[in-house]
Amino acid sequence: MIGVTLGILFMLVPEFYSKAQKQDVFVSLNPLLEFNLTYLPNGNSFDKRYLKLLVRFDSATTYIKNFYIPDQEHKKIEVFLFQLGVLKEDNIRKIIPLSFSNDQLEKYSTVEVTYQNKSIEKIKINDLFLKGKKISIIERALYFLLTLVFSVIGLFGIWLVVGSVKLHIEHYQKTGETLEITNLIAAKLEGFKYVLRGFKSENKDSEI
After folding, report:
1. Cis link prior to 41 (omega < 30° from 0)?
2. Where are the transmembrane segments (predicted)?
3. Cα separation of 76 and 175, whole Å?
4. Domain range enclosing 63
5. Is residue 144 part of a domain?
6. In the listed set 131, 153, 181, which residue is the last one of a domain according to the structure?
7. Which of 65, 107, 134, 196 ranks highest by number of CB atoms within 10 Å?
């Protein structure tokens, strides 16, 4: 139980809080000099399960993102290409490999990305997301709620663990023996009742 409790407090709670607090910092990278879509290279051939997006904004820096086609990760790119009139039907494979012409590149004055080590996390062109999305107020509120809920669960778990340890110590001090409870469910119920009593042992000899 202590492992689960610590996992909740030190893994889940920080993760949800981080997501609730996270603010996307988009970097504007203009002008767009290169936009290529191809399949992911695999030795001397290509792995056609993956689309590879390559964007370049200067002579030295290239940003890359791979999309797994069976999971429909490329759908936002399809929407983007439909709006451009580049994609005429629902089959992106017919236009791969794709490279924008200089005339097409000049149309995209607003290109913004969030990235890590030149790997794109989110990218939007002219305010249309090709990868990722803006975190909504509802999503942010949900992450805050999950942070609160799991914080309460974790703290309650710590409280139960402390109560259980104290119960075992008191039993050992009175009897000189460790508390042996073969039924795990019964042990948890007994520990829970002990906590509710304010860490006080039940007085069974109060009545004769």
Report:
1. no
2. 141-162
3. 68
4. 34-131
5. yes
6. 131
7. 65
In this prediction, residue 127 carries a pLDDT of 78
**Do residues 124 and 41 share a domain?**
yes
Q: CB-based contacts of 201: which residues, under 8 Å, 6+ apart?
A: 167, 170, 194
Number of domains in the chain: 2
Report d(CA 63, CA 69) in Å as an integer.
19
Q: What is the mean pLDDT of the chain?
A: 76
Give the residue-averaged pLDDT of 1-28. 72
**Which stretches of the chain are assigned E, i.e. beta strand?**
27-28, 34-42, 45-56, 62-68, 98-99, 111-116, 119-125, 128-131
Q: What pLDDT score was predicted for residue 196?
A: 59
Name the residue among 3, 32, 42 with its Cα closest to residue 99: 32
If you count them, how many residues does the chain have?
A: 208
Which has more confidence, 47 or 33? 47
